[in-house]
Amino acid sequence: MSLQNTTEIPLNDDALALRMYQQLIDSDKIIMVILGDSSSIQKGLILADKLTRQITTNETLVVMWIGNHTTLKNELEPILKTADIIQVDTPYKEIKAFCFTKHPRKVNTRIHLNGSLSPFRLTKLFREAIKNS
Length: 133
What we know:
Glutaredoxin
């Protein structure tokens, strides 16, 4: 996979994963987070990476790919709970993608595990984060 604006978070080194996460969070970029590693997620990941270059904006768009729901769960789950993204019917393990605004970091919506990582849905996540930044 040739991904230009995607940071793949390592799954076997928690300290490195946390450092890479913190570098992105501390940056002045809008960050889409994609969780999981199925074939549909990999296709969506390629599309999201392309969208970082195709969406016209003054903001820098990037993707953070975490291939499972356990790596960085302690960092991400509280943020999603605070944003009311995680609810009784949508636990953390049911989230496929979401987007952080610029500072202060906020999350407004998500794509559910059963949802499609379609061009429309991914663009909508980016556009919403741009609007709320």
